[in-house]
Specification:
Helices cover 8% and strands 38% of the residues. It is mainly beta and 791 residues long.
Length: 791
């Protein structure tokens, strides 16, 4: 998957236009970036933070990492909570819990992946979360005006060049790092006004100047507080090359100017690249020239920041500047239709229609509008394309992608002129991909008898937590030294891993098994420099910790004490053994039924005496017999009717069941009429469904003690988002519903013909304005961001 001045027209005739062609692309080995979509902007003490993380590399969802490390830190930088979440297809979702008893008005969220770790500063996601405690105190006074303002200058191309037109960008910042508007003039040593300064957006602006040799320039200016300042421009050099860029539809136009031609400039190279990936290159014969122009085709390139670099004949950089390409192609725009009114506990329906058949991975949150931070400027496109790529604070990065107006494109270009590029790692310094995907379990088998032959296979089973059953058996190969390794496993919480070797307990006694592994833990960094994060991070501009009036603390505390639903005592008779097996194994058309014969193979202590499964089945299924067909042993019913055969509910050939070991079978179900398939004469055919034992059956099997077990750490458990159903209203549901987050759906996936999704939820008892936020990315790297007010 993936934007000044009228200098162009008058210079086109000086040199031929060169429409460059792409070079071969370097090997893909790019650093990852993380963005997290939270279920709302502002939180209350004791609430849960639900989140969806998007991990991209080279502009698309990344498959490099398998684990997300996310932590919550307090104002001092102390880690108060950490979770590790599995990543699937470049995305992960989870939850964090805010302490109920706390006086802090904000906390920090930091996250990174197991591939990048903390080695790449740009790969670490950091965001401040505001907590509405109703108390003023330790929250930063965002946007507060300060006495001193700094004015910095950024000549296009890197240096101010004598004798030729230069574009000079500037940025005015307060001491706290926030931008401020200014106005001023550039004067020479005689006091003559040469150019004017006026901020365009977020304290930034630009002007044109042709420096004269031997002249010194000063800027007289004032900020919003009318404080007057004087700042000198950087000194102009005589032997430099001025680079100017203009972005046209589908093309990038560049102009090179100088007044002093260096011998090293007889041949120049203009290179367009994204980090270590070279996109275009062209050579310019510059001997005895003072100006050259050229053009590069960019229409097919993905949106994002690129570098335009001018090299001399020795490949030494002479001038450079960064550009944002193809801003208009950043987003994929869905159609959103919202139905319903905002009466008490009313139903709301959201219909999302994607514009094309691309695969889209999205998340949706709906929350009370009182918990929206107006000044955060925080969305998926602004973060990935600007905040994670540029150095320094980016004031409201989402602003630059809020529309496609020409002024926004110019302001985006101005942003790149005033901020340094945080380049991705070069190939030779790239972080290697972690080959241990998800959770890895390793083991070693040591024979205890001299003549014992090393087993060729071990069987692993995993029991998650205390209440859950055991998962399916996982066979792993054992090498000649007795080592085995299983990777790519996912289990939650603390788990018990069981390992079985040999065919029976007696054989297992000849070996010793050692197990190790579990989830690899990379602790989230503590003791972060809060001041540094504020200067470089994207933080909220929320000026108050006022809780919306309808969500007063007394109401919220009362809601926590109320029971939302009455307890219901359900009495039921104890299930029989075959009913338990049917519930555990069978599903869909295979479950339940009255026209079946259910066979508990796992509980039949004499099953092994039948030698093979054919003999066993004909002894249990009425009218069944075995017949050889072209040398293959098959099972038939009366009147030579051949049944459908299923293994774990997947159809197999009749003659294939001879390969099934009777000791591995847990349950068999003979279905006289299977309603999933009709025979050639239109009747429903009979079926035999065979189910292999799951891990819990193997563990509970009498006399089966040949297991080694080891406790191991798994992934963090994610809390389920609570969303009540008021479709049928009962007195038990008549409680004070004061949910601040109304709906959270971390995974909305569309592709192909399935471009439409319909979702529904219910309003709480008090909200009259809701905020809907849809975010995501598609397979082409286009971002999805839609924000709607529901009222």
């Amino acid at each position: 998957m993936r934007k000044v001045l009228p200098l162009v027209v008058m210079t086109l005739f000086f040199s031929p236009v060169c429409l460059c062609q792409p070079n071969s692309i370097a090997d893909k080995n790019y650093s990852e970036r993380i963005y997290i979509h939270f279920d709302k902007d502002l939180y209350l003490p004791g609430e849960s933070i639900f989140f969806k993380a998007y991990i991209i590399s080279d502009g698309i969802l990344s498959d490099r990492s398998s684990s997300l490390y996310i932590g919550m830190l307090d104002i001092t930088g102390r880690l108060s909570q950490q979770k590790i979440i599995p990543i699937y297809g470049g995305a992960a979702n989870g939850s964090l819990d805010i302490p109920l008893a706390g006086n802090e008005n904000y906390l920090w969220i930091r996250a990174y992946t197991n591939s990048a770790g903390k080695k790449d500063e740009a790969a670490v996601f950091t965001k401040r979360i505001i907590i509405l405690t109703g108390k003023q105190g330790n929250n930063e006074s965002a946007g507060k005006s300060t006495a001193n303002t700094e004015l910095r200058f950024f000549p296009e191309g890197g240096s101010l060049i004598q004798g030729v037109p230069n574009i000079i960008a500037f940025e005015a910042l307060q001491e706290n790092g926030y931008p401020v508007s200014i106005k001023g003039v550039v004067v020479n040593t005689k006091g003559d006004t040469i150019a004017s300064l006026l901020t365009s957006n977020a304290g930034m602006g630009k002007f044109e100047l042709t420096p004269e040799q031997g002249e010194v320039y000063e800027v007289n200016w004032s900020d919003a507080g009318e404080t007057k300042y004087k700042t000198s421009l950087p000194a102009a050099i005589s032997n430099g090359l001025a680079l100017h860029i203009e972005q046209l539809p589908g093309k990038l136009f560049y102009i090179l100017r100088t007044q002093s031609v260096s011998p090293q400039w007889d041949s120049l190279y203009v290179v367009l690249s994204n980090a270590d990936k070279e996109l275009y290159r062209t050579a310019i014969f510059f001997k005895d020239k003072f100006l050259a122009t050229g053009m590069m085709g960019i229409g097919k390139l993905s949106p994002g920041i690129v570098s335009v670099k001018v090299l001399d004949r020795n490949k030494t950089p002479v001038a450079e500047r960064i550009v944002f390409l193809n801003k208009d192609a950043v987003f994929s725009k869905p159609e959103i239709i919202i139905k319903g009114n905002l009466s008490k506990r009313s139903k709301q329906t959201v219909e999302i229609v994607m514009p094309d058949s691309s695969f889209n991975n999205m998340s949706l949150s709906v929350f009370d509008d009182g918990f929206r931070d107006e000044g955060s400027g925080f969305n998926i496109a602004g973060y990935f394309l600007l905040h994670s790529e540029l150095r320094g604070r980016i004031y409201e990065p989402a602003y630059y992608f809020s529309d496609t107006a020409l002024i926004k494109k110019e302001q985006l270009d101005l942003l790149l002129l005033t901020h340094g590029w945080r380049r991705m790692r070069l190939n030779e310094d790239a972080i290697p991909v972690d080959t241990s995907r998800y959770i890895t379990i390793e083991g070693t088998i040591k024979p205890l008898r001299r003549n014992s032959k090393m087993p060729q296979q071990a069987v692993l089973m995993i029991k998650e937590g205390k209440e859950k059953g055991v998962g399916s058996a996982i066979p792993v190969a054992v090498d000649e030294r007795g080592n085995f390794r299983a990777t790519g496993l996912v289990f939650l919480d603390s788990a018990t891993v069981y390992c079985s070797i040999g065919k029976n307990p007696a054989e297992a006694e000849d070996y010793q098994v050692e197990l190790k592994g579990g989830l690899k833990v990379l602790p989230v960094e503590e003791g972060i420099n809060i001041a540094e994060e504020l200067n470089g991070g994207m933080v909220s501009l929320k000026k108050s910790n006022t809780i919306p009036a309808e969500y007063n603390l007394e109401l919220l505390n009362r809601q926590k004490d109320e029971k939302t639903l009455s307890e219901v005592l359900v009495k039921s008779k104890k299930m029989s053994r075959v009913e338990e097996l049917d519930q555990r194994y069978a599903s869909g058309l295979f479950s339940g039924g009255t026209n079946t014969t259910d066979i508990d193979v796992a509980g039949d202590s004499l099953a092994w005496a039948k030698l093979d499964i054919h003999n066993y089945l004909i002894s249990k299924i009425p009218g069944a017999f075995v017949k050889y067909d072209h040398g293959q042993k098959k099972i038939y019913l009366m009147s030579y009717q051949e049944p459908l055969i299923f293994l774990n509910e997947s159809v197999i050939d009749n003659d294939a069941i001879g390969n099934i070991n009777i000791e591995k079978v847990a349950y068999v179900k003979f279905i006289r009429q299977y309603f999933g398939t009709r025979s050639s004469n239109g009747d429903f055919a009979p079926a035999i469904a065979i189910y292999l034992k799951k891990g819990e059956d193997l563990l509970s099997q009498p006399g089966n003690v040949n297991f080694t077990k080891q406790a191991m750490r798994g992934y963090s458990v994610t809390k389920e988002f609570y969303s009540p159903d008021y479709a049928t209203f009962t007195p038990a549901k008549d409680y004070m519903d004061a949910r601040t987050s109304l709906y959270w759906q971390p995974y909305i996936l569309t592709a192909g013909k399935d471009r439409k999704v319909e979702l529904s939820f219910y309003n709480n008892a008090i909200s009259s304005r809701l905020r809907l936020v849809l975010q995501g990315i598609n397979e082409e790297g286009k971002f999805i961001y839609e924000e709607r007010l529901i009222q």
